[in-house]
Amino acid sequence: MMEHKNNRGQMEAFGLAIIVILIIIGFFFFVSFKAQSIKDAPQYQKEYVDEQAPQKFVIAFTKLTVKECDTYRNKQDIEYLIHDCATVQQVKCGAKTSCELVNETAQYILGATFIPQNRALLFKIDGMGNKSISISTLGCIDGPTRSKSRAGTSFVTLYPYPGQATITLTFCTQ
Amino acid sequence: MNKKNLRKKGQLQMGETIAIVIIVVLIIIFSIVFWGKVKKGDIQQVGSEQAELSVVEVSKLLNEMPELNCYQSGVQEVECVDLYKILALNATMNNDTTKNMTFDYYRNYFRTSRITFKQIYPTNISFVIYDNNISNSSSRQLYMPVLIKDSVKNTYNFGVIIVDGYYREIR
Question: Which of A53, A112, A117 sits opposite B144 (nearest CB)?
Fold first, then answer.
């Protein structure tokens, strides 16, 4: 009789242990699913900015009127200066050449916009021979190490000379 | 003796039942509190997502407003806002006679946000064209480059549109 009671007690304890284990497992699954869903939550604003800002920057930069050349003929924009820098290099505004002006303006604008926000970026103007420009921050460099990057590109034709200059701004997301 | 034993056994079983009821009640209370916290987190997340979407929507809307865009021979210029249109809107928003009407009209589009056009190059100037800052709110900021056209000087300046979206957080 005593042994029978002991067996019953053991079974009850065993059942209780199983219930506790099941509750703990359920809780663990719930918490891990919840954590995953928080981690995977969409970041609409970041996605939108990363996708749109580089292209908008490049378009605005290309059309920009350079203040030093405000009186130079009718064409005083970056597009014209890139064309000149990549071809004949005749334009001078004050004491500065077209290549210097493009470089300085790019440095100034990036320094007033995305660089203070600690963005990993790579700004490049290719197709200007040895005068090509490259500005990079926070280790955002060209090559296979770059991951999940978003870029905006604009082209400047060098007509009547052959080729084109390519302006690219890339945001790196490490 | 037998009666005493039976009473003791009954008391023991009653104690057992009370203990189980207390444990079950505690588990239920704990579950309700936990579920409430989880739901609150979900609602906060949805609120935050809505705020993000709202800021993005306002930013997209700004690119498509004829009262701000640049035109050359009737053709819209890409990623460009007219400096004089910004100045005009800023003046209308700050004029005592037109302020309320203009604010009511743009509230349908910009809701609880603050829109600033900041010219960065060649000079630093800022214009707030709309401000509906609600009290006790958090904000989300969106920053987008834009070309600002000075139609009088016929020059293009570099600027940014800053959209601050305000929203109330659930505490």
Answer: A53
Dihedral angle at the C-alpha atoms of A106, A107, A109, A111, nearest 10 degrees?
A: 160
B160 and A41 within 8 Å at the Cβ level: the answer is no
Residue A125 near residue A79 (C-beta atoms within 8 A): no
Q: Do the chains contact at B145 and A112, CB–CB below 8 Å?
A: no
pLDDT tens by residue, chain A, 174 residues: 556 767 877 888 888 889 889 988 988 888 888 777 776 777 888 889 999 999 999 999 999 999 888 765 555 789 999 999 999 988 888 888 999 999 999 999 999 999 998 888 999 999 887 888 899 888 888 765 555 678 899 999 999 999 999 999 998 875
Residue A77 to residue B156, Cβ atoms within 8 A: yes
Distance from CA of A127 to the nearest CA of B (A): 24
**Nearest chain B residue (CA) to A16:** B20
Structure tokens, A147 = 């991951």
Report residue A91 as tokens. 């334009």
